[in-house]
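G., the chain you wanted modeled:
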Amino acid sequence: MTSDLLLALTVPVLVCASGLYALADAWWRRRHPALRPVPYLPGRGPVVGNEQVAVAEAIVADAYARYGALYDTPGPDAGPYAPQQPARPAGTAPASRVREGGTTAR
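Predicted structure as C-alpha cells:
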C-alpha cells in the first residue's frame, strides 16, 4: 500500500521539481548573459576566405593530377553518365551510315 502511494506521489514531485529548475535556470540566464563574441574584423575575413579557397584549389588540382586518368575514360557499364561523343561537323555522317561509294544510307 505504501509503495503505491510513494509511486503515485513521485510523479507530481518530479514535475514540480523540474518546473522549479526551469524557472531558476531562466532567471540565472537572464541575470548572467553569455559573453559577447569577438567583433568581426572586416579586414581579416576575406583574407582567410581567400586562403582557404587557395588551399582547396591546390588539393583538388593535386588530386586531379594523381587520379584524373581514372575519370577520363568511362567504364564498360557507364550508362547514362558516360561522357558524350564530340559533335560531328555539319554535313558529315557517322561511319556506320556511309556506303562504299561515299554516299549515305537512308
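The mean pLDDT is 75.

Shout if anything looks off.
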